Structures are given as C-alpha cells and as structure tokens.
Request: fold
Amino acid sequence: EILMTQSPATLALSPGERATLSCRASRYVSTKLAWYQQKPGQAPRLFIYDASTRATGIPARFSGSGSGTEFTLTISSLQSEDFAFYYCQQYHDWPPNIPFGGGTKVEIK
Amino acid sequence: QVYLVESGGGVVQSGGSLRVTCAASGFSITAYSFHWVRQAPGKGLEWLAVLSYDGKSKFYAETVEGRFTISRHNSQNTIFLQMDSLSPDDTATYFCARGMPLLVISAIDFWGQGALVIVSS
Reply:
C-alpha cells in the first residue's frame, strides 16, 4: 500500500500570503496525484489532477507541481475563501488502493 | 446540472447491515467509475471502494474488504454500497464520488453531499 503524508498539518497564514502545501508518497506514483479542497460540512472538491492540471473553474492562483514521490500545492495569494482543508490522493497504485493524505488545514493567522 | 445524492444513512446496531444508495442525475453513469469514500467525525478522508465504468472490476480498501460491496444499476442511474458486519468504527459520513470518463481509476471529479451512518454499540 502506498502511504501519503501531508505537511504541515496546519498552516496559519494571512490573506494575501503565499501558501505551500506538501504531499509525499511512500512509493513512486508518477504524476497520478490529485488535490482536493474541503470546507466544514461540505463535500470535497477536486482542485488539481495529474499533479498540475487545474480542474474546471479553479482559479489560476492555485498551482500544483511535482512527480514521483514529492508534490506541492501552491496558493499564490490567499483569499478568504481559500481557508479550508486540503487533501492529496494518489491514483497510480494497481490493483487500486488509493488512499488520501491526512490533510492540511489552512487557517487564518 | 450534475448531481449525486446519497440516501439510506441512519443509525444501525453493531453487527448489523445497511445499504447506502447514490442516485445520479444530469448524466449517464455508464461511462464512469464510481468510488465510495468515508469521513469519520472530525477526521480525514478514507477511500473505501471503486467499481469500474464497465462493471467488470471492483476493488476495496483492506478495512472493508469482505464486509462492504459496491454495485451499480445502470438503467436506474444508481450506485450502491452494501455494508455488513458493521462496527462503531464504521461511523462516518459516506460519500459517493465519480471518477473521470472511461478510466478505472483517476482523480475524483465530482462528489455527493454524503450520508451519515452511525453504528451504535
């Protein structure tokens, strides 16, 4: 089983600041990596897939990078609506066992 | 407009069974793989199962293998999760989620709002 580790667990920043979230896979996953945003009481929403492709309707201030085992989600300038939980997920493993990372909470400083 | 609406959640005693249903609308499910993902109160996301778009392949997380069964009814545009031998550790919100077209596994591009399942001891 590929394990996904996200860091930091919590990121406290001010609006307008840059956020950098990390996700590490325990084994090689190529670029088969997605990022999701979840707000309290809501379903997750796809933000990035294939490591760097923004999903439909996702603002350009969100960008994803990385390949292999190390991945990054960057929010260039935090807006109020960006404070939320973010989860990564790999979908490279076969047969499929596609766990999520433990999540990063981006909170207002 | 695409919708996934879960139903069938509720309270069940430990050792019991429950079936959660996911009704899709705004698209045909025949070209999509579907996943079930759960989230225990205050915890992160846990992937549970995937059913391929052609219905030929099913895969499960170790924590639910042998107890949970994912299935689909294409003509009803509906996906199911049958849950047996439930324990209090299965208490969570259960999300139905859609993969990308004609891929067995992929990123999950659309999620339902979830159904709360509470297993009492």
